[in-house]
Write a structure and sequence with these properties.
Elements: E1 2-7, E2 20-23, E3 27-29, H1 40-44, E4 48-50, H2 56-59, H3 61-69, E5 77-81, H4 83-92, E6 113-117, E7 124-126, E8 129-135, E9 143-149, E10 152-156, H5 164-171, E11 176-182, H6 190-196, H7 201-209, E12 216-220, H8 227-237, E13 243-245, E14 251-253
Parallel strand pairs: 3-4, 4-5, 5-6, 10-11, 11-12, 12-13
Antiparallel strand pairs: 1-2, 1-14, 2-3, 7-8, 8-9, 9-10
Bound molecules: zinc ion (2 copies).
């Protein structure tokens, strides 16, 4: 399994892209602006999109992806997400007002887009890669993703702040090799981090103390312009962990 980081920033500017991770050639986890780094053939190869939540920085590429390659697809693009997330997309995005409902284009019998609810406790296996939603704690319905292969496991938190349930889920994955986890703001912006339910360095450091597994740690969703400050505070707060900022263009293999 090859995970390519197309976008992992908390915002845009100077080449930064928002969250979009590519699993091998055919699956995306989230569809933020990182999707725009793919060329046309690569866009056409995407058959499945797993969404952690409906926020625009994780979904805005999806309607444009369908508009670009929908007519060339032989089968519908399938979007996997929590039922609550799919309901938001139905009501607020693919609603014929903000964007056409590609679940009915060119016909309801043979559409370009298909929704596939994936709830907690369920798992989806695609060509030997198993995707499982994990509980997290964000301002809207959201999940992390446990990506399991025969070579080991990787977890992507999506957007989250402190969550006992997430920690418990991580501790139940003995073969956890990589953990990609949100830390969006520096400590001085704790009020914004709490209001928007993201981690800040001190909250992540406290979370790590409860971990009984020892994955490689990659920090994501860093606020643009504050990346170095956040990473410095994190390393000071959690000196026993080898913390690295996740980088756009990075590839993680399992
Ligand atoms: Zn969010
Ligand atoms: Zn986000």
């Amino acid at each position: 399994m090859k995970l390519t980081i197309l976008g992992c920033s908390g915002g845009i500017g100077s080449g930064r892209h928002t969250t979009c991770l590519k699993v091998d050639d055919d699956v995306l986890i989230d569809a933020g602006t990182g999707i725009t780094t793919l060329d046309f053939e690569q866009l056409l190869a995407i058959d499945h999109v797993f969404l952690t939540h409906a926020h625009l920085d994780h979904t805005l590429g999806l309607p444009l992806l369908l508009d670009s390659v929908g007519d060339l697809r032989a089968t519908p693009l399938t979007v996997h997400a929590l039922p609550e997330v799919l309901a938001v997309l139905s009501t607020h995005l693919f609603n014929w007002h903000l964007w056409p409902d590609f679940r009915e284009i060119p016909s309801a019998e043979s559409p370009w887009l298909r929704f596939a609810p994936l709830d907690f406790g369920e798992a989806l296996t695609l060509k030997g890669r198993t995707f499982r939603p994990l509980p997290v704690n964000h301002v809207v319905p959201a999940c992390g993703v446990h990506l399991a292969t025969t070579a080991g496991s990787l977890v992507f938190s999506g957007d989250t702040t402190h969550s006992d349930a997430f920690v418990a889920a991580l501790n139940a994955i003995p073969d956890l090799c990589h953990l990609i986890i949100d830390t969006s703001f520096e400590n001085a912006l704790v009020d914004i981090a709490q209001a928007s339910k993201h981690h800040w360095p001190d909250s992540l450091a406290a979370e790590l103390q409860a971990l009984s597994v020892r994955p490689e740690l990659w920090i994501t969703h860093l606020k643009p312009g504050n990346e170095a400050a956040i990473m410095n505070e994190l390393r000071a707060a959690a000196p026993n962990w080898g913390l690295e900022a996740l980088m756009q263009g990075q590839v993680i293999e399992l």
